[in-house]
């Protein structure tokens, strides 16, 4: 007997496991209506399970469909325009979505005069020629100005005004969006109207001190002293004796005055006048002669006699009127002066200074250069020099004289 046969016999000998309540096989089979009900229960449970799993998806579908239906069925006027985010640069006017440039422009510039000098403090007005739109700024210390947020496509004009200058107006200009315009053609002209300035101070002495201080800054070509000229003759006050001596000493000790003495001594050395010897000794004698003569002339004619006679030693620039009247004024200057009382007087200070200086020079000149005729001749030469100097002061030197503003 094989092993399989033994297993089969053993298995057949075991009784079938049945519950004591179980009946015959026919009793264990359910009826047909029970099977149908159980299938319906299973179908309902499966459907409910599927619905539970699909509920989130199904819940979203109606919202999407509803939105699509509303947008498709509504008219544009019935719907509010949705706000666009700040980063959205695509518009109906700019369908490509490219960045939109600023709609404003900028104007800047510098205010200069006709000589190219800066004119700070000028009032700069930007105005729309087609409306009342206007902006106003003041040029800074570097004479610069700037207008921001200028509307593009609008005609504008710029007007520059400052006291003492004629008003400057630009031609009409229309700027493009984001344009940066630099105005480099603003050159103001001096006003044609004559402006008078009245100076008020605590005393006449204080005003005179300030006027002398300004006159001490006047130099021809920027370096040659030109201190004895009053350009604002209408408002010039008389000098005290102290100021007359101060002005004379300021001219006498100026380095350019000393260099001028040396230059004239060199010319005298070449011309062999006065009759000193040649060489270094002769140059020293001529230098001493010119220095002593110039200093005595400034001191006597510019300080001592004007203080005693109460006359003003300065030349008063006319600057206006016909050429004939200005020429007559310059020629008469060595002979007619202004007194400290404001009236015209015979210029005893200048005449007496020339005579006194010439006579004093006779004490140190060689014997061959002394005598009454030489004194008269030297006085005539000095007077002629004063006439030509006054003409130059009236017509030529003001153009080359640096003056304090």
Q: What is the H/E string? A: HHHEEEEEEEEEEHEEEHHHEHEEHHE
The poorly predicted ranges are 6-31, 50-79, 83-101
Taking Cα atoms only, what radius of gyration do you get, to the nearest Å?
55 Å
Overall pLDDT score: 79
Our count of helices gives 10
- The proportion of strand residues reads 15-25%
Structural class: alpha+beta
Helix amount, in percent? 40-55%
General shape: elongated
Largest sheet: 5 strands, antiparallel
Please give the number of β-strands: 17
CA distance, first residue to last residue: 146 Å
Total count of domains: 2
Layout of secondary structure:
Layout: H1 3-13, H2 25-28, H3 32-73, E1 104-110, E2 112-113, E3 123-128, E4 134-138, E5 144-151, E6 155-161, E7 168-169, E8 173-174, E9 180-183, E10 187-188, H4 204-215, E11 219-220, E12 224-225, E13 229-230, H5 241-252, H6 255-271, H7 279-309, E14 315-316, H8 323-332, E15 336-338, E16 344-346, H9 348-361, H10 372-395, E17 401-402
Helix pairs in contact: 5-7, 6-7, 7-9, 8-10, 9-10
Task: Summarize the entry for a quick read.
The chain is α+β, with helices and mostly antiparallel strands and 405 residues long. It is built from 10 helices and 17 strands. The protein has 2 domains: 104-188, Immunoglobulin-like (Sandwich), CATH 2.60.40.1120; 204-402, no CATH class.
Write out key terms for the chains shown:
405 residues, alpha+beta, Immunoglobulin-like, 5-stranded antiparallel beta sheet, 17 strands, elongated
